[in-house]
TrEMBL record, chain A:
Organism the protein comes from: Anaerostipes hominis
Gene3D superfamilies: TusA-like domain
UniProt superkingdom: Bacteria
Source species taxonomy: Bacteria, Bacillati, Bacillota, Clostridia, Lachnospirales
Protein known as: Sulfurtransferase-like selenium metabolism protein YedF
Family matches, as PROSITE patterns: UPF0033
Domain UPF0033 positions: 5-29
UniProtKB/TrEMBL annotation, chain B:
Required co-factors: Mg(2+)
Residues annotated as domain PurM-like N-terminal: 46-151
PANTHER family: INACTIVE SELENIDE, WATER DIKINASE-LIKE PROTEIN-RELATED, SELENIDE, WATER DIKINASE
Subunit structure: Homodimer.
Superkingdom per UniProt: Bacteria
InterPro entries in the cross-refs: PurM-like_C_dom (IPR010918), PurM-like_C_sf (IPR036676), PurM-like_N (IPR016188), PurM-like_N_sf (IPR036921), SelD_I (IPR023061), SPS/SelD (IPR004536)
Protein name: Selenide, water dikinase
Residues at the catalytic site: 14
Protein's gene: selD
Taxonomy of the source species: Bacteria, Bacillati, Bacillota, Clostridia, Lachnospirales
């Protein structure tokens, strides 16, 4: 079951209300596709999807044209993502962020020197990805990565310039006496860490 | 409803404002001339310009205009005027003269324009000011507002950002006006909610300002298109945090339901994008978040006053009849600029 709503030229709240009504009449698993002409309308539609737990995929199909595909029920996101994936570029899952969690300055168990080298390599590799993480959470020994003297500092700064939010645990900086040494991103607290993790669409932990 | 009325009322009011992000970007590029008598200009994020003429006299200048957000042209005129006059009150000034700003389609019934101007004039008179002229342009859509001049003592100007630790934040009108208007546009608002919104929008901030003038006001702004949180954000200096108790926020009751039904404006989302990263919400329901980002047309005053004055000032404000409350306090800077719990 598939419905299509053309909301081009319609101002908020119209696109969202039309989508909401259509989705309420759509059975489990059915989809509603809404075409809108501005990014703010896409964002308002994404709020509807988050609150009602609809699957949500949006893509920019042209200049000032956005197609938003919403799926009713258990948000069969994989399927929708896969389908739209075939239609290539500009796909944005809006339901949550990709969050990278660094809880250590070493990657993996084993030799310490190797672990630190691998972590530096991992952060560099992130800078080379097409899709960069939305946020990075650094805590415990991981907090040392964003401080002066860290091997990964340059790459973290590159990520930040590219739009990735770098958040370092304040308690950890205090514990290691590094509060004056933070060289990239912002200080965060446990509430933010917990909320960011809860709302993430995927958490990457090397 | 006639065809003409539908054209008359697009998405109007302060929701028609350019987004704060866009605006900051453009304004920051303008060269600035330094004049020591310009006490408040747009290097501040304030509501109006204040220019000192002598040691005990300054003029306050402001202008505001927008497209209609209600069908009744007389009420639209009243709302637009109350909204424009409000900037004078947010600075602590007294209204003196006002000039009409009019955009009106050549083919539209001139009686509609007459009603708009009558409505506007009624509010200028209520403010104790005089309508002294204006300027009209033929345009595709209706827009109306005022350029207002007022006076103030240069030593008693309420800057936006004068709040300090311990201050209590008072809000003098209910929030949710933008959400109710969005619902009304889709014929989903109750008569009661619409009436409460209109009553709030047509109420001059004059009376609340008069009450506040009896106290030491550390910072004051009026809550309009950028919504409660963005206007609050502009009040808070680097060393402080505003702690907001969402259970105290006055709002039009039905707006909670409309927010949950997604009668949400584009401007509300732009406000969220602009200020959302400065705000930490602790266990606040979705509808309340939306109410706090909701663009207001002719919204209330938001003022920081000393804690020992808060009860007394609030008692007097409540007698004015609109929902109002002490909504939060200023603390030393914490994790975020604004904490809402």
């Amino acid at each position: 079951m598939e419905k299509r709503i053309d909301a081009v030229g319609k101002q908020c709240p119209m696109p969202v209300i039309l989508a909401k009504k259509a989705l309420e009449e759509t059975p489990e698993g059915g989809t509603v596709t809404v075409v809108v002409d501005n990014d703010i309308a896409v964002q308002n539609l994404s709020k509807l999807a988050v609150q009602k737990q609809y699957g949500f995929v949006s893509r920019e199909t042209g200049k000032n044209t956005y197609e938003v595909r919403m799926t009713v029920g258990t948000a069969d996101k994989e399927q929708t993502a896969e389908e739209t994936g075939k239609r290539t570029d500009n796909i944005r899952e809006r339901t949550g962020d990709t969050v990278v969690v660094l809880s250590s300055d070493k990657m993996g168990e084993g030799d310490e020197v190797l672990g630190k080298m691998l972590m530096k390599g991992f952060v560099f590799a992130l800078t080379q990805l097409d899709q960069k993480p939305d946020r990075m959470l650094l805590f415990n020994n991981g907090a040392k990565l964003s401080c002066e003297g860290s091997d990964a500092l340059k790459d973290l700064k590159t990520l930040e310039e590219g739009g990735t939010e770098i958040l370092t645990c304040g308690t950890c900086l205090n514990h290691y006496g590094l509060e004056e040494q933070l060289a990239v991103g912002e200080v965060t607290n446990m509430y933010m860490i917990a909320e960011t993790m809860m709302q993430a669409s995927q958490i990457i932990k090397p | 409803m006639s065809e003409e009325n539908i054209v008359f009322c697009k998405s109007g009011g302060c929701t028609a404002k350019l987004g704060p992000g866009v605006l900051e970007h453009v304004l920051s590029r303008l060269p600035k001339k330094k004049d020591d008598n310009l006490l408040i200009g747009f290097d501040h994020v304030d509501d109006a310009a204040v220019y000192r003429l002598s040691d005990d006299l300054a003029v306050v200048q402001t202008l505001d205009f927008f497209p209609p957000m209600v069908e009744d042209p007389y009420i639209f005129g009243q709302i637009a005027a109350a909204n424009a006059l409000s900037d004078i009150y947010a600075m602590g000034g007294t209204v003196k003269t006002a000039l009409n700003i009019v955009c009106f389609p050549e083919k539209m019934d001139l009686n509609i324009l007459g009603e708009i101007l009558l409505g506007g004039n009624s509010k200028v008179q209520e403010a104790g000011g005089t309508l002294a002229g204006g300027h009209s342009i033929a345009d595709e859509d209706v827009k109306y507002g005022l350029s207002v001049m007022g006076t103030i003592h240069p030593g008693r100007v309420y800057a936006n950002n004068g709040v300090r630790e311990g201050d209590i934040l008072l809000l003098t009108k209910p929030l949710g006006v933008g959400i109710v208007l969005a619902a009304n546009q889709m014929k989903a608002a109750s008569a009661a909610a619409y009436e409460q919104a209109v009553n709030s929008m047509t109420t001059l901030n004059k009376y609340a300002a008069e009450i506040l003038s009896g106290y030491e006001v550390h910072g004051c702004t009026d809550v309009t298109g950028f919504g409660f949180l963005k206007h609050l954000d502009e009040m808070i200096e680097e060393q402080y945090t505003a702690e907001i108790d969402s259970s105290q926020i006055p709002y039009i009751e039905d707006a909670a339901r409309y927010a949950d039904e997604f009668y949400l404006t584009a401007a509300g989302q732009r406000n969220r994008n602009s200020v959302g990263s400065d705000v930490w919400f602790s266990d606040v329901p979705f509808w309340m978040e939306e109410i706090l980002f909701d663009p207001q047309t002719s919204g209330g005053l938001l003022a920081g006053i000393r804690p020992e004055d808060a009860q007394s000032a609030l008692g007097k404000l409540k007698k004015l009849g609109l929902p109002c409350a002490a909504v939060g306090r200023i603390t030393k800077r914490r994790e975020k600029k604004i904490l809402v719990y």
